[in-house]
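__Protein archive entry__

___
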Amino acid sequence: MRRAVQLANRRGLHARASNRLVTMASRFASQLTLAVGDLEVDAKSMMGVMLFGATLYEQGNPPFTIGADGPDAADALDALAVLIGERFGEMD
């Protein structure tokens, strides 16, 4: 399963937002990935997500894809899409 999303917060996928994403992704049994262009990273890897955030920043914050494969894939996609849509709980 895949879902296209885009960051809404001004600061992008910085360290605190990356930590929140990895923490939430790690709650699910499914394999979760983030992909943009030729780059695909494990959404449960802090280093991978930080690299992904830097790539998004360099590319001008394009839409990207969350991928999920496993027993709770639909729930994981929903949860991550909400987290991203709500700007990781940040006000700006």
Q: What stands out?
A: The chain has one domain: 2-89. The two ends are 30 Å apart (CA to CA).
